[in-house]
Specification:
The complex is a heterodimer of chains A (about 130) and B (about 110). Chain A is mainly beta. Helix content of chain A is about 0%, strand content about 55%. Classes of the chains: A mainly beta (about 130), B mainly beta (about 110). Chain B: This is IGL c4176_light_IGKV6D-21_IGKJ1.
Chain lengths: ~130, ~110
């Protein structure tokens, strides 16, 4: 059974750095084709993709947030860590991690859907 | 960046009615379009992948169609438990993007 669980502070102050950890089980990020992403959702608003890391340690970021984000993995611990610098109240959101595959489909390699999501962790940015 | 626009934003529907939600991409994404359901206070759940591929465990009343720039999620014979927000998502090109969501309310 594949599960993911996010953890981190519930409250951070403006300008601080947020560090979130995604701990997963049921798959390995050293397996070819495995990826983990971070996605966030402000209260009452839509989903926003933030970052992805794959089995080969390739990393991709949201265009608008890439200067503030760093994603990393610890394969031995089955963890993916996201840091976001210079937090602002507009960053208040539920932060999710989710698994994604990279598969050979219809004659080419493609990124799959987010098939399993964590339960999310709510982060409030306030002084 | 590919923009996904869903319509409608909100729909109030009677049980057993058919629901149709559309998602339009700002450029062609082939079939790399996926649909999620998010119930209140829950994380999103994958409903349909690659525009029309069914997901194990998802009721058969959920179906998807489309390719290129225009996609549709259909819920046949809506049930009370289908009250949720529905999101489309493209994995054709980075950065991944989501639609703004469609909220389905049960009358």
């Amino acid at each position: 059974q594949v599960t993911l669980r996010e953890s981190g502070p519930a409250l951070v102050k403006p300008t601080q750095t947020l560090t979130l950890t995604c701990t997963f089980s049921g798959f390995s990020l050293s397996t070819s084709g495995m990826c983990v992403s971070w996605i966030r959702q402000p209260p009452g608003k839509a989903l926003e993709w933030l970052a992805l890391i794959d089995w080969d340690d390739d990393k991709y970021y949201s265009t608008s947030l890439k200067t503030r984000l760093t994603i990393s993995k610890d394969t031995s611990k089955n963890q993916v860590v996201l840091t976001m610098t210079n937090m602002d109240p507009v960053d208040t959101a539920t932060y999710y991690c989710a698994r994604m595959g990279y598969d050979y489909i219809w004659g080419s390699y493609r990124y799959d859907a987010f098939d399993i999501w964590g339960q999310g962790t709510m982060v409030t940015v306030s002084s | 960046e590919i923009v996904l626009t869903q319509s409608p934003d909100f729909q109030s529907v009677t049980p057993k009615e058919k629901v149709t939600i559309t998602c339009r991409a700002s450029q062609s994404i082939g079939s790399s379009l996926h649909w999620y359901q998010q119930k209140p206070d829950q994380s999103p759940k994958l409903l349909i992948k690659y525009a029309s591929q069914s997901i194990s465990g998802v009721p058969s009343r959920f179906s998807g169609s489309g390719s290129g720039t225009d996609f549709t999620l259909t819920i046949n014979s809506l049930e009370a438990e289908d009250a949720a927000a529905y999101y489309c998502h493209q994995s054709s090109s980075l950065p991944w993007t989501f639609g703004q969501g469609t909220k389905v309310e049960i009358k």
